[in-house]
Design brief:
This protein is of the alpha/beta class. 41% of the residues lie in helices and 11% in strands. The structure holds pyridoxal-5'-phosphate.
Length: 377
């Protein structure tokens, strides 16, 4: 039995498509394509869901990071700490601002930014900001990082592109801290649009006002009637995407709950395969959004053999992330630390965990991994 890595035909049910068409039809009747009713409504709903004061929709998750850096006045001549394990958009946002990324190493078991590595780096260079990533949906150690950063006036931007529903160590959702938190609504994320969209969450009225202007050509940044104080860019989210996000948000908690059930089932069954298989997110069973289900093999060779076996048996899997950031070509000369990220990237492989997976499919994945491991040895 084949098991796919994602399954959009199941996720976007006939009912959801019918509801979407109704809303689209209404938007076309009203000719309200940008900044419509659903933009405001979804911003309110998502802010509430993640316990933030403000939610500002933007065009995508990378823009959300870039605009956050811009709002905090991070740019040319500034250094920004980023973890070695993340999607490379985290680094792109820093480079696109003209700032210099500095690699912070990760926890060898989870791939999350390591506070110890950050402390070591700060003995050598000053960072204007850091971007911890809630990678795979696991909560980054925000309280520890804040302890290091706040006394030194280092800004924190949390990359929550994979963290819709993630619970931080203080028991509150990603987006509820005093840092800027960015989200992506790329279709594969836990909350995905029917195209591109992103958001920035903040508790700060001033930053929210600035971001609101930056995302829309600097509009409303100056005194009434006298034009903008500063120019921005176009990073608006269109009305169709906001409407879809409004429809899909209602299902997010139930879908995350299903992801958690699948994770619990995988953890229980795969634990028996230790030490062949390490389970990075084990301690985060009830706090991860389970955007992805990463497993750690002994080394790269074993990982590639298992991947090949799963591919042959049509079990969806993905190399997130195949290379640590320090091994990405545009970042080879990037300063910082990355030995543990390198090892983690060599060992990690992700299994399917979409919320529409059936119990039979979970068993099929586990059984194929067991067979694969016997075959490899
Ligand atoms: C998806 C993702 C992004 C980028 O989001 P886009 O909407 O594709 O621009 C950034 N960071 C992480 C960790 C992501 O997973």
């Amino acid at each position: 039995m084949a098991v796919s890595f994602y399954n959009f035909s199941r996720l976007n049910s006939p009912e959801l498509r019918r509801e979407a068409l109704e809303l689209f039809s209404k938007i076309m009747e009203d000719n309200a394509f940008i900044d419509g009713h659903f933009n405001r409504l979804f911003e309110e709903e998502f802010a509430k869901h993640q316990q933030a004061k403000h939610c500002l929709l933007v065009a995508n998750g990378t823009d959300a990071l870039e605009i956050s850096l811009e709002a905090l006045e991070v740019g040319v001549g500034d250094r920004v700490g980023i973890p070695g394990i993340t999607f490379h958009a985290t680094a792109e946002a820093v480079l696109n601002r003209g700032a210099e990324p500095v690699l912070i190493d990760v926890d060898p078991m989870t791939g999350l930014m390591s506070p110890d590595s950050l402390k070591r780096i700060l003995k050598q260079v000053y960072l204007k900001a850091i971007i911890p990533v809630h990678i795979y949906g696991m909560p980054a150690p925000i309280a520890e990082l804040e302890q290091i950063c706040l006394p030194r006036h280092i800004s924190i931007i949390e990359d929550g592109a994979q963290a819709h529903g993630t619970i931080l160590a203080d028991g509150r959702p990603a987006g509820s801290s005093n840092n800027l938190t960015t989200f992506s609504f790329y279709p594969t994320k836990n909350l995905g649009a029917f195209g591109d969209a992103g958001a920035i969450l903040t508790q700060d009225d001033e930053l929210a006002k600035k971001i609101n202007s930056l995302r829309n050509h600097g509009r409303n940044s100056g005194p009434n009637g006298q034009g903008p104080e500063f120019f921005g860019r176009n990073s608006r989210c269109d009305h169709f995407q906001a409407a879809i996000l409004h429809l899909k948000l209602r299902h997010l908690d139930a879908q995350n709950q299903r992801r958690r059930e699948i994770a619990a089932s995988y953890l229980q069954q795969l634990q028996k395969l230790f030490p062949e298989i390490g389970l990075p997110a084990q301690e985060f069973l009830s706090t991860s959004s389970w955007h992805l289900f990463p497993i750690l093999l002994r080394n790269k060779e074993q990982k590639m053999h298992l991947k090949e076996y799963l591919d042959q048996h049509k079990i969806g899997n993905a190399l997130f992330y195949e290379r640590s950031l320090g091994n990405e070509r545009p970042l080879v000369d990037c300063p910082g630390e990355g030995a543990k990220a390198l090892q983690f990237a060599d060992r990690v492989l992700c299994l399917p965990i979409h919320p529409t997976m059936t119990d039979e499919e979970i068993i099929e994945v586990v059984n194929t991994i067991k067979e694969g491991l016997c075959y490899i040895q």
